[in-house]
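JOB MANIFEST
job_type = single_chain_structure
chain_count = 1
residues = 398
[input]
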Amino acid sequence: MSLITAQEALEIILKTSEDFGTEEVKFLKSLGRTLKEDIVADRDFPPFNRVSMDGIAIDVAAFNNGQRAFKIEGIQAAGSEQLTMQNPTNCIEAMTGAILPKNTNAVIQYELLTIENEIATINLEAVKNLQNVHLKGLDRKLGDILISKNKLISPAEIGVFATVGKTTVKVAKRPKVMIISTGNELVGVCETPEEHQIRRSNVYTLVSLLEKLNIQSETAHISDDKNLLLSKISSFLNDFDVLLFSGAVSKGKFDFIPDVLNELGVKKLFHTVKQRPGKPFWFGKKGSKTVFAFPGNPVSTFASCLKYFYPWYYKSIGLNFENKNQAILTEDYFFKPDLTYFLQVKITKEDGKIFATPITGRGSADLANLVDSDAFLELPDDRSNFTKGEAFPLITYR
């Protein structure tokens, strides 16, 4: 059986990305989704000459003519209609966020004033035209693109939606995902396992990893019965866009998944990757349906989902999937097999740099060891010695 490299596996997977279409959602429900339309300014920003400091609005010409004391003619409150200053030698009190009164062209903040008996005296030697005025359209003009499509929506984008009156927004649809575990040795979380059994855990790890992507998934467990597997998986292929398996993809007597998928017409694009953990990873397609069949050991499932499913999903919904994160080894490390190795590490940050300290585990079945780690450091397959101070790609999960 020929092995492909981790990089080759990722390239194959990325070529199979799927467009799941779009849907309209209420803007407050769009957090974490991917925007699929350009958001444009429905007016200038700001929409008027905006007062940016609490103080008085004046005509600078009067100040330049030597005047320092100004009679207060009125108050321009934020949200009130624009006032007009009647006397060019007077002033109008103006609040932050208010429209600049007509016949005024500068604002002097209260801290630079002395106010007595409705007379404001300016304690300054010079005043600039449009001082403390945020000009209409300075930030954006009517029709300008405020947010381009294919942007992950954060609280900042929510605020812009509200500002332009977008009560609903177009976002990428999420795939329907079924997460499937197999094996007679697995029992439910609420059950007490026999000595020869363990509780189902991988599916819930995958559920949580997908929830971080804002994907709601369903789960199923199928016992090691080939006919039952054929029936159930055939149904899942009809009803779901993506199937994620954990287990039954290696060479064991009850590892039926590759044969079952083949019989159901799922085209195998590769099986086994030159990596540890996760070597027996199987990947295939049936039309628009995508199947990730991860090895059953917990760390294999965990690392493979982060390394392969995450970038596939990002590309499918139009987000940048390139991982540019790197971390620096804090100690020498040796790994002999000619495989890409996903080393579990603890992360620290210092002076803007990320450092990775290896965490010793007991193989890909050591699920508890993931709790002591923060990330995987991806060590290349063409060498065995990795030196303190070298930087390698980092796949984080915290």
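[summary]
The longest strand covers residues 340-350.
The radius of gyration is 31 Å.
exit_status = 0
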